[in-house]
Amino acid sequence: MKTEEKFVPGLEGVIAAETKISLLDTEQEKIIIRGYDLIELSKNQTYVDLVYLLLEGTLPSSTERAAVEEKLKANYEVPSEVMDILNLLPEQTHPMDGQRTAISALAGYDKAINDRSVEKNNTRAYELLGKLPAITVNSYRILNKQEPVKPNQDLDYSSNFLYMITGKKPTVLEAEIFDRSLLLYIEHEMPNSTFTSRVIASTNSDMYGALSGAVASLKGNLHGGANEAVMYMLNEANSVSEFEQLLYSKLQNKEKIMGFGHRVYMKKMDPRALIMKESLKQLCDIKGDHLLLEMCEAGEKIMVQEKGLYPNLDYYAAPVYWMLGIPIPLYTPIFFSSRTAGLCAHISEQHENNRLFRPRVKYSGERDL
């Protein structure tokens, strides 16, 4: 007698790939990146260090870190034809759609696009990472009728990224906090966008196509778009009491509160959110304005009491980006830019040890019509 195969909605808990890249260790409550604890790495390492770790498999020496910075700077410039394409997009286009379009267009400039070797994929990853700040920022600027801004070669990667967004050289603290946010977003095992990129790569499609699919996945507000939704929600209130009333009203109307809950972190706060909460306090202390921090803390208490849900990274990353002067429509494109290093590592790993993804279905339709 044939046994019925188990159907798991959303593939929750289903093992879909074997990887050496990362793991959400729920027993030890750690995010493991190439054997290291991400939270521990965030205390002493930089975003560029983790780019090297993800792509090369080890933490870089100071010489190797400097070499990566130079490699990224050498790829800051984006072909003018790609910028022309962005100029042709309708003004209501979301910056993520501009980002996706630009990445797709870059495929045409890769003369070795059919080479799926680890070495070539790593080269592509560095080239794409170098170009992403200009693509990310200028897709937003062009769509908002602003002049494109050029990278500052005198600044390190993360400082230049923030400079291009705000138009001013960041302070040491601002640069450190922004770099830390990129580091925390860089890799997170097998969320929807990573799974999407691996599914596409499994057909032997190229890195640009796999990343374009990942952008589309990350755009959804149940994945990357949550940080934007959090900030729009915070901006609906002008005080702690107003924000509390807003949350109670949303809960009463059974609305989803963005920034809370996670498929993996069910019984405690996302450890990355704790670090961003500390960063938010640092920015509030410097600016002498603690309203956003107080609102977030009040919301945190309400959601734990009423729903048993804890903040995820997006909940505290959103007000941090607001305090850094970053426009809300750029929050998710920044998330994608930082996650690209992890995505590229997964795409390369899929190419290296590939098996085409081809799942089955549980059929619930009619028969014999």
Could you say what the CATH architecture of the largest domain is?
Orthogonal Bundle
CATH topology of the largest domain: Citrate Synthase, domain 1
- How many separate domains make up the residues? 2
How many β strands by DSSP?
A: 3
Helical run tally: 16
- Strand residues, percent: under 5%
Q: Quick one: CATH class of the largest domain?
A: Mainly Alpha
Q: Given the helix and strand composition, which structural class is it? A: mainly alpha
The N- and C-terminal alpha carbons lie at a distance of 25 Å
**Radius of gyration using CA atoms only:** 21 Å
Rounded mean pLDDT is 95
Largest sheet: 3 strands, antiparallel
What does this structure look like?
By secondary structure, this protein is an all-alpha fold. The chain has two domains: 30-221 and 327-352, Citrate Synthase, domain 1 (Orthogonal Bundle), CATH 1.10.580.10; 226-323, Orthogonal Bundle (Cytochrome p450-Terp, domain 2). It is built from 16 helices and three strands. The protein has a three-stranded antiparallel β-sheet. A hairpin with a 4-residue loop joins strand 1 and strand 2 (30-33). The radius of gyration is 21 Å and the shape is globular. The two termini are 25 Å apart. The mean pLDDT is 95.
Features:
single chain, mainly alpha, Citrate Synthase, domain 1, three-stranded antiparallel sheet, globular
Question: In summary, what is this structure?
Answer:
The protein has 369 residues and is mostly helical.
